[in-house]
User: Which sequence fits this backbone?
């Protein structure tokens, strides 16, 4: 909670200019203005605020969660308290669709902060940001490979009667190389295949880096013990989750992953809708649901999967398994226990070497 002696600097950060709003809580003075984005301007702005501070006050810097916040935070260091606002969770004013300016935005952020209702974003450390970049780089390489494969498949489907089944196995690649294509199309396909081979080589390099991260990350090795989760998936899952201390309950983690259903409740009426939302771009949810292809064979999860499959079908059953997996991961990381694949009743009698009951996966 802020104190009444602080100087609050709310900024709308852009690549060229910074729109700011200055508020002195001790005197009630408020200013606004703009200056060029850069280290010198930011330090001059914060330095001026520090000189005008009264005894016991501090400088508070507030900005949106946008590209560049990490370097600004590192630049400020101990000069100011850094607050990263999550504007996606802020309610829009009635006329926001018709009138939106940087000055209005800074006013909204200041108002929410002074009222104690400003939603904030998670600020990952440099290590977490580097791990996430490695994971995102691999995902980008995979998506670019898929785009090239789809382009070649579309060309063959549109222009030829060649069989496109199993085209990307070793045998399929040899069959593709022997296809009789017009000179212009043959050149394009050859260029695309060269790009594909280069992307595969780069993916191996990125996965070697992921292996190094995995070797020094015990938590990733614990998650890898779950059937259906390998090294790449374990590192990817944990990089998206971040520090488990962010989530007090497993249900918070499920909501973050976008696996919680929507809810509309009023008085005695309550309706649940489709899953969605969450705090990620959907890749975490995709990883979890893909892992359920093998999770349904684990004794701990199989009874729940079979019950839900018979009631609602395979798709809903896999979503239920993805939620159960997140509960298991949450317990493993919070309580520092290993995964127990056995069914719940049998699992309660098993203990870890440290003497803790290995019940990761049980819902409570």
Assistant:
């Amino acid at each position: 909670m802020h104190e009444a002696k602080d100087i609050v600097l709310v900024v709308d950060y852009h690549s060229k200019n910074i729109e700011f709003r200055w508020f002195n809580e001790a005197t009630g003075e408020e200013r606004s203005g703009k200056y060029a984005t850069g280290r010198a301007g930011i330090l001059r702005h914060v330095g001026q605020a520090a000189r005008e501070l009264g005894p016991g006050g501090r400088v508070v810097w507030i900005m949106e969660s946008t590209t560049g916040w990490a370097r600004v935070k590192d630049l400020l260091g101990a000069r100011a308290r850094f607050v990263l606002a999550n504007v996606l969770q802020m309610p829009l004013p009635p006329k926001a669709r018709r009138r939106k300016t940087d000055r209005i935005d800074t006013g909204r952020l200041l108002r929410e902060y002074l009222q104690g209702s400003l939603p904030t974003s998670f600020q990952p450390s440099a290590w977490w940001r580097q791990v996430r970049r490695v994971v995102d780089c691999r995902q980008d390489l995979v998506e670019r490979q898929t785009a090239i494969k789809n382009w070649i498949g579309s060309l063959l489907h549109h222009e030829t009667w060649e069989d496109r089944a199993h085209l990307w196995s070793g045998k399929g690649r040899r069959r593709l190389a022997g296809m009789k294509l017009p000179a212009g199309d043959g050149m394009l396909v050859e260029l695309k295949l060269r790009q594909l081979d280069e992307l595969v080589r780069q993916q191996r390099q990125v996965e070697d880096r992921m292996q190094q991260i995995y070797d020094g990350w015990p938590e990733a090795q614990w998650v890898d013990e779950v059937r259906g989760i390998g090294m790449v998936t374990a590192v990817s899952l944990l990089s998206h989750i971040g520090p488990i201390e962010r989530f007090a309950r497993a249900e918070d983690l499920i909501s973050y992953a976008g696996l919680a259903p929507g809810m509309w409740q009023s008085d005695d009426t309550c309706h649940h809708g489709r899953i969605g939302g969450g705090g990620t771009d959907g890749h975490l949810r995709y990883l979890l649901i893909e892992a359920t292809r093998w999770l349904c064979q684990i004794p701990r999860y199989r009874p729940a999967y079979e019950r839900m499959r018979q009631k609602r079908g395979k798709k809903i059953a896999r979503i239920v398994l993805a939620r159960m997996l997140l509960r298991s991961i949450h317990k493993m990381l919070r309580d520092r226990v290993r995964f127990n694949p056995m069914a719940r009743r049998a699992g309660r009698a098993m203990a870890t070497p440290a003497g803790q009951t290995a019940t990761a996966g049980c819902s409570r």
User: Anything to note?
Assistant: The two ends are 33 Å apart (CA to CA). Residues 126-159 form the longest helix (34 residues). The chain has three domains: 7-114, 126-216, 221-347.
